[in-house]
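REVIEWER CHECKLIST
Item 1: Sequence provided? yes
Item 2: Single chain? yes
Item 3: Sequence as submitted:
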Amino acid sequence: MAAIDFDFESLIVDIPDYPEPGIIFKDITPLLKDPQGYAAIIDAIAEHFMNRGITKVVGAEARGFLIGAPVAYRLGVGFVPARKPGKLPRETISESYDLEYGSNELQIHADALTADDVVLIVDDLVATAGTAVAQAKLIKKFGAKLVGLGFLMELEFLHPREALAQATDAEVFSLVKVS
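Item 4: Structure as written out by the authors:
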């Protein structure tokens, strides 16, 4: 089955009132455990960004690792983990970002990227875009070129593309859009 033709939404389960009343949580674990579904995610994102000169994929802890690392493998490029503070053992570059209930920070190793790198950010979900914007800013600190952001799911009703447009002009690609 062609990756683009896969019915991703059929394997995403709505969990009402989680983690709090009024929220409908989109559980992607049934999609990830399905061999064809998981492969379709990786193939669709990788195929979309193929032949763009990408040299590195950046993915944020932890679910960005689940999709970003195999996309990097499929593209034949390196993977750079963006981690929470204190998780990387060597010198890091950091970027803070705001959450609904506070702030957080992402770090990558100081030698993870160079100005010659062409980068793709990959994650499972883009909602308010705080994590993606932080990654875009980290990439910019290295002088590397960000060419795209690939997501399994985009929560359109939170308007993440508006926040992303303020941080980068890179292409945003999502397999599933939730209005």
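Item 5: Key structural point noted by reviewer: Strands lie at 13-16, 24-27, 56-60, 78-82, 92-99, 102-109, 118-126, 145-155, 171-178.
Item 6: Recommendation: ____
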